[in-house]
Amino acid sequence: MKRAYFAALAATILAPAALADVVAPGDVVFDEAGALETSLTSQPGNPEEGAKVISTKSIGNCVSCHEIGAMPDVPFQGNIGPALDGVADRWSEAEIRGIVANAKKTYDGTMMPAFYKVDGFIRPGEGYTGKGIAEADITPLLTAQQIEDVVAYLATLKE
Amino acid sequence: MKFKAMTALAGLLAISAVGAANADPVEDELVINDEIEIVTRTAAPEHMEYIDEIMSGWLFREDDTRDMERDDFDNPGMLAVEAAMEVWETADGTEGKSCADCHGSVEEADIAGVRAVYPKWHEASGEVRTLEMAINDCRTEQMGAEPWGYTSADLTNMSALMSYMSRGLPMNVAIDGPVQATWERGKEIYYTRYGQLELACANCHEDNYGNMIRADHLSQGQTNAFPAYRLKDAALVPIHKRFQGCIRDTRAETFSPGSPEFVALELYVASRGNGLSVEGPSVRN
């Protein structure tokens, strides 16, 4: 009884506090080169979670387009984009954050999808159902925390 | 120590296996039943701005999948053709007529070759029609029969028979004259980046054919081989169903089979294959 009460209390206090520090997709401000200096959340990124996001088909599925030599167990890595090995030698953390959130700000017209964007789409669909979705109901492909986790993982890819 | 070296080696192998799969289309030739020579590579039609050589999707498939198309006995799509041959001879509708009553037997039918020129302008209705629409038009106007559903097995089977009767002939759809506005609309759709992934047909099939998107070896997305028997679905797939799947995969709201948008898109994509042989029913994974 008492524990349930504290749990509920903790949830009401902590949840809004955690949310308050998340930058909403519409509020993200990229610099001129497409980089994002500040974290999208108040929590540091977790590289292990980031690796999961990158390699899991139903989450980031980054490996559908990128090869990552550091993930030899992940089958069927695509080669639409550059291999991500050594990416942290080529780009700063802020630049990587910008590319993952919305690569179009860094590379004009790139094929890479914007993972933290919720508007401006043509005939957006409800997931992979083929049905339409109202713009107000669109959620970004990845959450702010997932972006930070991915950035934390990519920051480890040095050669 | 020894164990560690082994895993490192295994890792290396896994990477090179990925590398090996990233190959360009194979060098191979397709002759069906040791008889029908299929053009799977040729110069791109003049209207194409970014591609010099057009290629059949057959060249992008694995050896065993390609082999299934070399002989009709190994091609599961041929069952559909056989089913349609029976329907071809069977009377239906209020007029009590079969396809064969107007067009002759399958061997001598006056419509061998139609697949290669569809979609095409239909003067009486003043619109561009796909082969599927033309078949349904015969059913409702000539036979007094019910139209078949656009992606139904009946219509897809009959469409496969039309491909079979045109096999080996070069795709040759018209793009100017009365169809030009529809063709332009199809081109616009081809280059539009739909859905939350913001991907156009061109991103995958023009900019990246030959590359891997996860386990899929991207082809030029040609329509000359349709309907296609997909091993994954264990079914014959009509063109508009393939379009629907590709657009759905961009997290977009798709268009419907038979819609004006897909008719236009089919005309445009077919014109990108002008010069490749009609190859349906094909085998794909």
Rg from Cα of chain B: 20 Å
Please indicate the percent range of residues of chain A in DSSP E strands (runs of 2 or more). Answer: under 5%
The major pleated sheet of chain A works out as: none
Q: Helical residue percent of chain B?
A: 25-40%
Please give the structural blueprint:
The complex is a heterodimer of chains A (159) and B (285).
Chain A: H1 2-20, H2 47-55, H3 87-90, H4 93-102, H5 144-154
Chain B: H1 2-21, E1 30-32, E2 36-38, E3 41-43, E4 53-55, H2 63-68, H3 78-88, H4 99-103, E5 120-122, E6 127-129, H5 131-143, H6 153-166, H7 180-190, H8 201-205, E7 212-213, E8 216-217, E9 228-230, E10 235-237, H9 239-248, H10 260-271, E11 282-284
Parallel strand pairs in B: 9-11
Antiparallel strand pairs in B: 1-2, 3-4, 5-6, 7-8, 9-10
Structural description of this entry:
The complex is a heterodimer of chains A (159) and B (285). Chain A is mainly alpha-helical and 159 residues long. Chain A has a single domain, classed as Cytochrome Bc1 Complex, Chain D, domain 2, CATH 1.10.760. Chain A has helices spanning 2-20, 47-55, 87-90, 93-102, 144-154. Chain A is globular. The model of chain A is unreliable at 4-18 (pLDDT under 50). The model of chain B is unreliable at 1-22 (pLDDT under 50). Chain B has helices spanning 2-21, 63-68, 78-88, 99-103, 131-143, 153-166, 180-190, 201-205, 239-248, 260-271, and strands at residues 30-32, 36-38, 41-43, 53-55, 120-122, 127-129, 212-213, 216-217, 228-230, 235-237, 282-284. Chain B is α+β, with helices and mostly antiparallel strands. Helix content of chain B is 38%, strand content 11%. The radius of gyration of chain B is 20 Å and the shape is globular. In chain B, strand 5 (120-122) and strand 6 form a beta hairpin. A three-stranded mixed sheet of chain B has the order 10-9-11. The longest helix of chain B is centred in the first third of the chain and has 20 residues, at 2-21. The chains are: A mainly alpha (159), B alpha+beta (285). Chain A binds chain B through residues 57, 61, 63-65, 67, 69, 72-73, 75-80, 111, 113-114, 121-125, 127-133, 138, 141, and chain B through 10-12, 14-15, 18, 21-22, 192-199, 203, 207-208, 211-215, 244, 247-254.
